[in-house]
Amino acid sequence: MVMSRIAAALTFSLVASGLYSACIKKQEKVHIPTKIVQARTVSPDELIGMVNRWSRAVSSLQSASLLVDAERSGVEAGKIERYRSAPGYLFLERPRNIRLKILIPVAKSTLFDMASDGKRFEVWYPREMKFFFGEDLRELASAGGAVKKDALGNFRPQHLVDAMLLEEVPLDEPGRWHFVREEGDSSAKYYVLGVVSASRESRLKLEREIWIERSRMEIVRQRYFGPDGRVASDISYSDHRVRAGVAVPFVVRIERPGDGYAFTIKFKELDLNVKFRAGTFSLPPPPAGAEMVELKS
Q1: Does the predicted TM-score (pTM) go above 0.70?
Q2: Which of 17, 142, 153, 224 has its CA 20 to 30 A from that of 295?
Q3: Rounded to whole angstroms, how far apart are CA atoms 250 and 52?
Q4: At 138, phi and psi to the nearest 5?
Q5: Is 182 within 8 Å of 214 (Cβ atoms)?
Q6: Over its length of 297 residues, how does the chain's per-residue pLDDT go in tens digits?
Q7: Any long-range contacts for 181-184 (C-beta under 8 Å, 24+ apart)?
Q8: Exposure of 279 by Cβ count < 10 A (0-12 exposed, 13-18 middle, 19+ buried)?
Q9: What is the spatial distance between Cα 293 and Cα 134, in angstroms, rounded to a whole number?
């Protein structure tokens, strides 16, 4: 009996050894993506310097040739409503100025016209003959049922400002810190530059993350977080082209999971560091008969 057990154990050991040997001898060539092979290495200080130089290099942006694709989700479980691409115009200026006009496809009449200086905003919605205005940008989504029926009705100016006018990473600012970590997927490697701050509960709050693809050192993603730690805005950037010495994304997608909508802006052309004339970031008075809707905080 003892000898049979020894023989069985020896047989198993030989078989296992043979299988292991066969496995380690088998080789397979694996393609390594170029972005991974060419990933660069920089220090955290160099990375922050790059991001802040990119931020300072762009003071304003203008595009009279763009398309907006919008979609809305969360209205019904498992349902996404996609809307037809619409042309438009966009003007942005630091610190928080924005003017966005979206046109109805084919007809090229105004779908809505929005302006904000970061404090007061105005929205002209001719389909319902309503002129919205207020001091608190965050209240746009709660205004009147008519606007909420439209995919772009929940859009708020600061979302696009945050996406297109990159904020600097704060340095030596009390109560705010930054960190750098590495991430990767099957196609590329990334540096993730994060900004955190201290909350009233003596906890660290993640404010935002900036994702930099390491082969070309281009910003490909940015995420803003709410007070509860949930993602408020998830912004992706692609089709970078050099303008005024800066790699500018010509495709920007903004997802607002808490608001149940997302939209993609595709620039056909744009200009940087433009001087705007007075009045660019305010709307003309609405026509007679328009309903004035004040949005209060």
Answers
A1: yes
A2: 224
A3: 20
A4: -70, -10
A5: no
A6: 554 555 555 455 544 455 455 555 677 888 899 999 999 999 999 999 999 999 999 999 999 999 999 888 754 546 677 778 999 999 999 999 999 999 998 888 999 899 998 888 889 999 999 998 887 554 344 444 434 444 444 567 788 899 999 999 999 899 999 999 999 999 999 999 999 998 877 789 999 999 999 999 999 999 999 988 999 999 999 999 999 888 999 999 999 988 888 999 999 999 999 999 999 999 999 999 999 988 765
A7: 183/211, 184/36
A8: exposed
A9: 9
Give the DSSP per-residue string, 60-85: EEEEEEEEEEEEEESSSTT-EEE---
Task: In whole angstroms, give the CA distance from residue 2 to residue 20.
Answer: 27
In one letter, which amino acid is 111?
L
Q: Which domains does the chain have, with CATH numbers?
A: 49-295 (2.50.20.10)
CB 4 within 8 A of CB 12: no
Per-residue pLDDT, 74: 58
Contact indicator for 252, 240 with CB cutoff of 8 Å: no
* Residue whose pair of structure tokens reads 């990375």 in the numeric block: 47
Rounded CA separation 170/230 (Å): 22
Calpha distance 119→97 (Å, rounded): 9
Query: What is the number of helices (H) and of strands (E) in the chain?
Result: 5, 15
Task: Name the β-bridge partners of 132.
Answer: 123, 293
Phi, psi dihedral angles at 285 (to 5 degrees): -55, 145
- Strand-pair partners of 81: 72
Taking the C-alpha atoms of residue 156 and residue 80, their distance in angstroms, rounded to an integer, is 20
What are phi and psi for residue 69, nearest 5 degrees? -110, 130
Write the CB contacts of 248 (distance below 8 Å, at least 6 apart in sequence).
58, 240, 241, 242, 270, 272
Residue at 186: amino acid letter: S
